[in-house]
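pinned: reference chain
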Amino acid sequence: MIWALAREGGWRAGILCDSVSAGFDSRTNDEGGARLGIFWRSPAAKKGRLVGERMFARATANVRQFSSRRSEEVAAARFFRNDKVSVEEILATASALTAQACAGRHVLLIEDTSEINYEAKKGRKRGLGQVGNGTDVGLFVHPALALDAQDGSIFGLGWVTLWQRRKAKSPYYGSLPIEEKESHRWITTAQMACQRLSQASLITLIADREADIYELFARLPDVRRQLIVRASSNRALADCDLHMLIGAEPQAGRISFEMQARAGRPARTVTAAVKFVSVTIRKPKSNTSKDDPKAITLNLVQVSEINPPSPEDAVEWNLLTTHDVASLADALRIVECYRLRWTIEQLFRTTKSQGIDIEESFLRDSGSLEKLAAVALIIATKTMQLVHARGDHGHKYPAARVFVPEDLAVLVHIIAHLEGKTAKQKNPHPPKTLAWAAWGIARLGGWKGYQSERPPGPITFCRGLQRFSAMADGFRIARDFQT
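pinned: its structure tokens
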């Protein structure tokens, strides 16, 4: 029994394994949902599908914890040591599934950057570059996450750029062409994602202040690609500056919304004044490209909090957009779209220590760690799909979008056991919808199930998936024993 409990907890029973990864297969299961897997080749498809299913079901990137037996650990190690398994193919397979879901829809494409820091395990890693502080080892990930503009549900990943910093920043960095800067990732990632999601009717890129780059506004927008970017600086205009211009505009109206809690900042209700105005920004002197226009006309929407708890915590957003903004309703739509940028922060949270804990991986070489990062983002995205399916809009998606048929059969029994006798303790969602499945996983993660309670977040779902996986394993063992 001690051996079995240790194996379930992640003990390797003697195997040395230094590579793990996974992705999604573009094939479907018997109920029309996407299967977890990778590629169309064999044996890569079989190994990748197994690793993907285990990582998602057990909500961990640790091979010791997501593998059930020694043979699975061996398969995972061989999969990641395989030079023919590339990050590009993992991402292409995942984005192909996203493209299917995006067809004919208005897509919000949210970009941001996060670092994966392996300094605590530096002695066990090989070939990694440096991360943001210039001393720790690790790598960077820059995903483009696709959301439904109508309800905020997650379609999947459009693309991910991964890179490692190998050299110090040039003293002439500011004067370099954008193509020679790390900030070029904002353009290339968006272009690749838009190319992969070509079936979408409209794509709106949403990004925070780091993406306030003139070249992005100059090169990305067209009839089916728009931008919403938070301004990072007080840009120079024709005869004044951005802050002076918007400051002279009258208040168009107000908006109230819930601000999510984060470290050092509790959740609160924000009431803010809204203004909007057309602006023409000038090409910066550092831009030497002859192809970029000398000026670009955009719309600016300003959100300024009324009576903030402190000046440091005040919400003050200046949102530059290529969308038409001719009314308060237009401005409010821009604000609501930008507020969904928080989803990618939750994606990073799910990927790291509070979720599947990618930074605790025992993988060694940088190539394997890049593959793991790509797969971890895919797995975290699937978990976030559950989070966003917890409401009524999750009714339109089948549970088979996330779960394989065998696990769905187990979930039916578990949910029946979780339900109480009163109406408030029942699963309120149609059976076998994604919302129905999300209710069950959240309950397993510690959520009480009452509508008056705070909605469950990604960490609750990670805990729920881990518990569900153990219970599903028990069902399978009991079934095999009976036969």
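why pinned: Confidence is low (pLDDT under 50) at residues 1-41. The two ends are 22 Å apart (CA to CA).
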